[in-house]
Amino acid sequence: MEGAIASGRLAVNGARAALGQRVGPRDRVALDGRPVSLRFEQGAPRLLIYHKPAGELVTTRDPSGRPTVFDHLPRIRGGHWIAIGRLDFNTGGLLLFTDSGELANRLMHPSSEIEREYAVRVRGELTREHLRRLVQGIVLEDGPGRFDSISPGGGSGSNRWYQVVLREGRNREVRRMFESLGITVSRLMRVRFGPIRLPPHLRRGQWRELEPREAAPLLEVAP
After folding, report:
1. What is the CATH class of 47-111+196-221?
2. In CATH, what class is 115-193?
């Protein structure tokens, strides 16, 4: 759909549609000149948390037949799950899904500045200069990146853990920031998205739908 919008194939009320544009029940939507029937959501959006293992793609299908996160999710009658952000193939941890496209867009929009917390295992121990640069900012190919905070998370020998917090969801940003300093990330897990934490009892490959009272704090931070 994003491709159709970008190429000018989608129109709203006779005018070319724009990415992020909102439509309501009274709007007329057409794809390649043909009317599109839209169904609008009723009631509160559903939210689901999933413990993504490393080695799964965040896509509905893969031409190469690799496993995807959607292989494990429950089906929705008359709808589908939408991933709130992504985790790359080798990253595991907390992934959220909703049946509301509007909510997903609000939570993923850069203006939301929702905190993402990761547990990062690296080879070797970071120096004070490493810590300073990661917090002050590092220039990446797609713009500067920085952690809001970074703190030791334990470990010994050649493997050390760190907890990092940032407010962006750019592709492989955490890995690229460490790699820019010559540091190898051997394991990466997202453990928190905004107020939602990965439950310690939720095993890899398992999901759980949030109750309204559990989802409420996340809905409150969405602009």
Report:
1. alpha beta
2. alpha beta
